[in-house]
């Protein structure tokens, strides 16, 4: 069985289209939230999520579109992008987002946007935070997003917790925290779209990067009236 794992699409339709083409034939697609926000075509990204029937969880940007009261968590430019995003979405897109759970499961793995203990608001950047969340998740694989940094937290034979920044195929040890990186707004200095393919039977993940039409994505951001920095950062992958 092959499962595509994507996260943080952030309204970047051009990146999502390229990832879908690169994925080829998979048995299912998991989406770890933040389907909208920052990008110029959130409506097309929601449409694809609905059409394809991804197993999707709620992200903090998705939630903000549903409840503008949580915008106090956002900086001013991100809040502006949420307001513009909300205007572009049709009622059925908002209904779809409203129906998304904060936690879900697939093939025995836990799915969250940010972290097992705080599904919408915690960044897992360091080993202590990862250790606490591994304990919370229990003995299973957990896929998460939110940091936009692809990689794996897991224990070595001696029990020592390590972090592996994305690199091709990685054999997973249970438990593990696995982040596919961001489709629509990578922040690891590589501007290509990031995602992974998980093979539960062999217990491995394959981190992948895909080029996409960044000029069109930047144009869509500017045309939507989003802050111009959201366009220029796509070239930097930051
Ligand atoms: Zn995000």
Describe this structure in words.
This protein has 238 residues and is of the alpha/beta class. It contains 8 helices and 12 strands. The strands form 2 sheets. The chain has a 6-stranded mixed beta sheet with strand order 3-2-1-11-12-9. The protein has a 6-stranded mixed beta sheet with strand order 4-5-6-10-7-8, covered by helices on one side. Strand 11 (193-199) and strand 12 (204-210) form a beta hairpin. Helix 3 crosses helix 4. It is globular. The protein starts with a strand and ends with a helix. Residues 8, 10, 34, 146, 148 line the site of zinc ion. Zinc ion is lined by residues 8, 10, 34, 146, 148.
Brief overview:
This protein has 238 residues and is α/β, with parallel strands linked by helices. The protein is built from eight helices and twelve strands. Helix 3 (60-66) packs across helix 4 and helix 7 packs antiparallel against helix 8 (229-236).
């Amino acid at each position: 069985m092959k499962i595509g794992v994507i996260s943080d699409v952030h309204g970047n339709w051009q990146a999502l289209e390229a990832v879908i083409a690169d994925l080829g034939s998979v048995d299912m697609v998991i989406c770890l939230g933040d389907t909208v926000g920052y990008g110029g075509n959130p409506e097309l990204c929601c449409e694809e999520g609905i059409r394809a029937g991804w197993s999707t969880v709620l992200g903090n940007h998705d939630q903000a579109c549903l409840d503008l009261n949580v915008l106090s968590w956002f900086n001013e430019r991100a809040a502006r992008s949420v307001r513009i995003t909300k205007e572009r979405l049709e009622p059925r897109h908002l209904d779809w987002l409203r129906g998304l759970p904060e936690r879900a499961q697939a093939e025995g793995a836990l799915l969250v946007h940010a972290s097992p203990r705080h599904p919408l608001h915690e960044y897992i950047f360091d080993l202590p935070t990862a250790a606490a969340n591994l304990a919370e998740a229990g003995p299973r694989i957990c896929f998460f997003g939110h940091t936009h940094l692809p990689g794996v937290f897991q224990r070595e034979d001696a029990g020592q917790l390590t972090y592996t920044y994305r690199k091709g195929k990685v054999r997973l040890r249970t438990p593990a925290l696995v982040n596919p990186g961001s489709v629509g707004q990578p922040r690891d200095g590589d501007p290509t779209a990031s995602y992974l393919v998980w093979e539960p039977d062999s217990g491995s993940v394959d981190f992948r990067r895909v080029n996409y039409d960044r000029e069109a994505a930047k144009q869509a951001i500017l045309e939507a009236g989003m802050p111009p920095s959201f366009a220029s950062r796509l070239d930097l992958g930051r």
